[in-house]
Amino acid sequence: MLGGAVSVPSVTAVLIPLLVLVCTVFGPGLLNVPPAPYLAIAMSLGYLDRLGPWSWAAIFPNLYLFACITVGTGIAYAGMLQSDVWDNSLMAAPFLIGMGVALAGMIPFWIQLAWQRRFLPQDRFQNGAWALLATLVAPSVWVALFTIVYAVSPIGSYGSIAYTQFQLEPIVQWSSVTGIGGIEFLVVWTAVIIYRSWIRYVRFEAGREQELKAWNQLGTQTRRRMVLVRRLAFAPTPTYLIVIMFVFFYGSMRFWNATGTFYMKPLVDTIQPTVKAGCVIGSSDYNNMSSYLAQTHELAKDGSKIVIWSEGAVTMNNQAMVDEFWATAKNISTTYGIYLGITYGQYLDSYMIDSKNMFTVFDPKGQVAFEYQKAHPVAMVETTVVPGPNKLPVVDTENFGRLGGAICFDMDFQNFIAQAGKQKVNILLQPSWTWGKS
Q: What residues make up the domain containing 338?
């Protein structure tokens, strides 16, 4: 209360966080729209920037934005744990993730704006290299912070804004150089450039007029040209555009140069070899062993050279059941001369509480190519699943190069999945959970 009057938030102050909420729903999550995270970050920066210097008065707007990002993230992931029948009791987990994402995501905003208020009023930060440095604060902090989060979080890199760009193939190719951190940097940097453009060219129109007057008073054409060169050298927006063009050029080049030649090759020389493979869709919720084995036979008869089952297709109560299951799988792999990957949950005691999430691959001779225990059980879901060694299994084959394996959620842990690249895996087999009834 100020002077007996109650301060009423403006329409903009109420609307912008709601728009951030909408963009968050369609950002990282199950309802992906690639431009959404750019807009969400840019609007968040613009909204927080309007609060003025940090004070007690800024607490409630910050909490409002925090709540909007939390709710948006929760809605985006609301269906991640649901099965055929919606269960409201499972809604808590997505919103808990949303709280963590909102808190971690706002830290770079606070640091960016605090840094601006300390240094940006200085003339040297208005143009040129120093201005470029000012735009790199938020993306640098974001990548550094989330690299640590991904390393220690029980959900790994699940929810990374880098995943929102999977439809933009040239951007995806950039991850081969920088990992997902490089894509996150580009997304946040783009948002900062959008935010900066709004601040400079819309909200501060009067400042532009004063700047233009000062420009006209510079005097000689030579002096103007020198000032122009100094301002454009490493200026944020031109530098950003050059970097983006390079990233798109590099990513596109990886496609047209994939065959190892700069120019065209005969069509017969560009056809990439393929392997006919099949997947048996099933779930331990139904534990329909006979149906899954029948599917395996059909796929093998149809010419599939690699057949794998979806994650945890069946449940084994004891070692005797596992031995019998293995014998059946060996028989199929040798009969048809295929690589067969079977998946199962194996209980570790007679109480049938703790279990292992297993993926065993047999080669065409019926030998175990590798036996793998899921290294990263899903937090809050696989609470009774014992994690296996944090080592990606690899086996060399005669016809398909080097095969590797992982199970579903393992793919969200950068240090784990990076082993596939380090070991030069040619084909990565990855069974995932399915809610199918067959």
A: 277-429
Look at residue 184 and tell me if it is in a domain. Answer: yes
Structure confidence by residue, pLDDT tens digits, 230-271: 555 667 888 898 899 999 888 888 877 666 666 666 767 666
pTM above 0.85, yes or no: no
* 177 lies in some domain: yes
Q: Residue holding tokens 């008065």?
A: 57
For 173-218, how does the pLDDT look when each residue is reduced to its tens digit (9 = 90+)?
Answer: 888 888 899 999 999 999 999 998 887 765 554 445 555 455 455 4
Q: What are the pLDDT digits (tens) for 376-406?
A: 998 878 889 999 999 999 999 988 899 999 9
Last residue of a domain, one of 256, 289, 319: 256
Domain count of the chain?
2
On whether both 320 and 248 belong to a single domain, the answer is: no
